């Protein structure tokens, strides 16, 4: 597993938790067996290590824990892991009947516990199999003293292990659902803003355009009717007036949409990123930005926030506001990314006020930096 710091930063929160869960379960298996081997330092300890390796391989075959579905590959891993567990159990059984002593008997219980943690939770008839395995281990390995108690103890420990793995899988499903809900909420916020602007555009200029269409058709008909040339000209003058008024209304609407407040955009950015599962840290305040740059800065904040939601898997971001510019940094830069068209538009907008825009990506960290000449 190639888990470099850069790759870890690129993982989403559910992927990190899934990796943590799998490694924890596998680490517990290997840790127990290695402790036994170091303490015993004999061939029986090697059987415990082999059982643990079988459990690790089985866990590695589960897409619920790896986050990747590879049917053929997973099937092979499952077969190999299960075969190692069965072989370890049989080898321990042979060792017991060869006079290896009580240490070999523990191999049976140890293998049963590992199977209950790594294999049985994913099998349909897990409980009957657990009972059968506990009975076979108790009587096959020759527990003469209170065998029924041994069966009950193995079933109890096995049930706890099955419950541990089942609880881990349940938690993973909850984390996945929460992440999906955050992303859906962020997408809905973007869609809601688009719908609002579309509704405002329709309400403001829709009626004027309809009037222009009707009057243009009327003027066209009057122009082809003898004696109505003056009336047709008058209708065209009204069309011209309506067109000018509609253009002004549209400009006013766009100015109202573009005339955004920097403080509102900063608050909106924090709300949107929180909904998308990204923690935003704000350094400085909107008041520190010169007033003549507020509108441009607000657009940078809006576009930068939208790009984080759409194009990254960031879990943390920083917005730094100052007199000479602003910077947006996030930890979820994609492996390959081109320059979004929105950033080109921002660069053009900033050039009109003497500002510059620079972006860079380094080690999974994306930085958007804007500078302008402060008064």
Quick tags:
375 residues, alpha+beta, Single alpha-helices involved in coiled-coils or other helix-helix interfaces, Heat Shock Protein 90, 3 domains, five-stranded mixed β-sheet
Description of the molecule:
This protein has 375 residues and is an alpha+beta fold. The protein folds into three domains: 5-177, no CATH class; 189-258, Up-down Bundle (Single alpha-helices involved in coiled-coils or other helix-helix interfaces), CATH 1.20.5; 262-371, 2-Layer Sandwich (Heat Shock Protein 90). 71% of the residues lie in helices and 8% in strands. The protein is built from twelve helices and five strands. The protein has helices spanning 5-10, 13-40, 43-60, 63-66, 71-97, 102-118, 126-140, 147-223, 229-258, 262-275, 294-311, 341-351, and strands at 279-283, 316-321, 325-330, 356-362, 365-371. It has a five-stranded mixed beta sheet. β4 and β5 (365-371) form a beta hairpin. α6 (102-118) runs antiparallel to α7, α7 packs antiparallel against α8 (147-223) and α11 packs antiparallel against α12. The radius of gyration is 34 Å and the shape is elongated.
- Counting structural domains, the number is 3
What is the number of helical segments per DSSP (H or I, 4+ residues)? 12
User: First CA to last CA: what distance?
Assistant: 53 Å
Sequence stretches where pLDDT stays below 50 over 5 or more residues: none
- Which overall shape is indicated by the principal axes computed on the Cα atoms? elongated
Largest sheet: 5 strands, mixed
Helix content: over 70%
Number of strands: 5
Short description:
By secondary structure, this protein is α+β, with helices and mostly antiparallel strands.
């Amino acid at each position: 597993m190639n888990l470099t710091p850069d790759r870890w930063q690129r993982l989403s929160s559910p992927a990190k938790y899934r990796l943590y869960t799998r490694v924890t379960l596998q680490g517990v298996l290997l840790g127990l067996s290695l402790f036994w081997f170091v303490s015993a330092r004999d061939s029986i300890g090697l059987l415990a290590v082999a059982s643990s390796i079988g459990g690790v391989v089985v866990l590695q075959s589960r897409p619920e824990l790896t986050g990747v579905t590879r049917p053929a590959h997973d099937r092979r891993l499952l077969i190999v892991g299960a075969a190692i567990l069965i072989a370890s159990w049989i080898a321990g059984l042979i060792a017991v009947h060869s006079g290896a002593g009580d240490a070999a008997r523990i191999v049976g219980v140890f293998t049963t516990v590992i199977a209950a943690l790594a294999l049985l939770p994913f099998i349909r008839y897990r409980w009957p199999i657990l009972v059968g395995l506990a009975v076979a281990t108790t009587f096959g390995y020759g527990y003469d003293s209170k065998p029924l108690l041994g069966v009950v103890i193995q079933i109890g420990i096995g049930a706890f292990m099955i419950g541990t793995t089942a609880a881990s899988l349940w938690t993973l499903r909850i984390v996945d659902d929460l992440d999906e809900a955050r992303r859906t909420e962020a997408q809905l916020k973007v869609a809601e803003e688009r719908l609002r602007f579309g509704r405002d555009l329709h309400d403001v200029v829709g009626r004027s355009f309809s009037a222009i269409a009707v009057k243009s058709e009327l003027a066209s008909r009057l122009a082809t009717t003898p004696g109505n040339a003056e009336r047709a000209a008058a209708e065209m003058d009204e069309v011209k007036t309506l067109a000018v008024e509609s253009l002004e209304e549209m400009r006013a609407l766009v100015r109202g949409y573009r005339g955004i407040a920097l403080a509102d955009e900063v608050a909106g950015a924090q709300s949107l990123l929180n909904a998308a599962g990204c923690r935003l840290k704000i350094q400085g305040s909107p008041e520190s930005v010169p007033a003549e740059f507020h509108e441009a800065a607000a657009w940078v904040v809006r576009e930068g926030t939208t790009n984080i939601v759409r194009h990254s898997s960031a879990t943390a971001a920083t917005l730094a506001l100052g007199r000479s510019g602003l910077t947006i940094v996030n930890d979820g830069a994609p492996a390959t990314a081109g320059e979004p068209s929105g950033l080109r538009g921002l660069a053009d907008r900033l050039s009109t006020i003497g500002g510059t825009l620079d972006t860079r990506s380094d080690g999974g960290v994306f930085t958007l930096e804007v500078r302008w000449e402060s008064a």
